[in-house]
Amino acid sequence: MSIFYAMIGILAAIQASLISFGIIESGAISITWVRIHFVTIGIVTQAIFGILPYIISGELSNRWDIWAFLNSGFFLFFFGRSILDTLMMITGGSLIFIATSLFLIQLFQLNNNGSNYLFYVFGIIFFLFGITIGTGIWADWADILRIANPLESHIHAQNWGFINLVYTGLILDLYTKFTGKKIANPGAIKYILILQTLGGFLLLLSPWLGGKYAVSIMIVGMIAFLVGTTILLRNILLPLRGERKDWGFLHLIAGYVWIYAPLVFSPFIILGVDTFRYVEQNAPQSLIYGWVFQTIIAFLPYFLGSEQKLGGTKLSLILVNLGGIFLWLNIFIREFYEILFGIAYALWAMALILTFYQSTIRSQV
Description:
The chain is mainly α. The protein contains 14 helices and no strands. The chain has helices spanning 2-20, 31-57, 64-83, 86-109, 117-137, 142-145, 150-179, 189-209, 214-237, 247-255, 257-271, 277-303, 314-332, 337-364. Helix 2 (31-57) packs across helix 7 (150-179), helix 8 (189-209) packs antiparallel against helix 9 and helix 9 runs antiparallel to helix 11. The longest helix has 30 residues, at 150-179. The relative contact order is 0.10.
């Protein structure tokens, strides 16, 4: 299913580029929403739901009921969004919530073989919050739940909570397999967990509460998150000091550049500083392709059965990160924003095609 959604993601990225160059017209559906969710719910969630039971227990333990709820929910939500059918979107979101709840229960039932289990558990809990908020955006739940900025709360729950914690857990669990070494200080793992979880929670809470304390809460959350992430990077880089890093590992490290950038601008966005208004519109796309997708490239061989190396090449590293650079240029050079935006998505489309070819077609040959 991850590969299936990756194929659709390729078409969506090509479409975005062609629209920006004026070659085709935009449709009625928000293609930004389509592109982002085919990467997050499509590629990432499918892969995570498939691989985590094996990471935790050492045994494949996938369940058809979870798979069916997750994919039928995604289909209903996406189709409901395209025709603006609120009931269908609520139904789809509810099915995704059920699938995620069953998956969380499944994780509790597995015998942990020494994995960094809590990163996955807390990440899935954040995902439940993200699903609830995301579904509620279209069902007017914001007033009931007293969410001041539901869209930003949804994005923060998904990125800083769900995806980040699961990615951190995977990096820590697979580090020795990919590098043949242990992280510099295994005792630091508990501090990474505490700081990233606290940071993710505060970054979720800030736009949820809104008001005069929102910026202060966000800054504290941002500091906690960045300190935890910096500790993580230090511990995975130190053992490899002086050694040549492979392209997959460089993909992992480069992805974190795109995490730091939007966090720095977040307080200005909440304060409503006009200069940074385009950051809120475009930074999530840079984050999804620059960080989320780039980390997928690195982990892809493991997801497909190879436990020996990370994925990625010099070309994929260049394409993904050049795309991120052009998207950020589009944010600040508005007179050329359509051209820069189109170039960014053209580069990402090429990176998607290259990754798909290397991980499926070439591996079979």
